[in-house]
Design goal:
Blueprint: H1 10-21, H2 26-42, H3 50-60, H4 64-70
């Protein structure tokens, strides 16, 4: 891959590559992996620190609201 994915750990890079392998665009794959990170930080059995996830998303040029909107997870965003 030509794009810099230093915001991801090895598991995240493998997940990103799997999304790319099934035909997702790079942006779609990044959003999906970012959603996984958010789930791991805020969902049941959270194993990542939310501040760390926000830092990683910042490195990726993404923000939490953008990811939640793209995945339909910001219920208050509907008008």
């Amino acid at each position: 891959m030509t794009e810099n994915h230093t915001w991801l750990d090895e598991d995240g890079r493998r997940l990103l590559e799997s999304y790319l392998a099934i035909g997702c665009t790079t942006h779609e794959a990044r959003i999906a992996v970012a959603g996984d990170l958010l789930q791991r930080a805020t969902g049941p059995g959270a194993d990542l620190d939310e501040a760390e996830v926000r830092r990683r998303l910042d490195l990726a040029g993404l923000d939490v609201d953008e990811v939640r909107d793209a995945l339909g997870l910001r219920f208050d965003a509907a008008s």
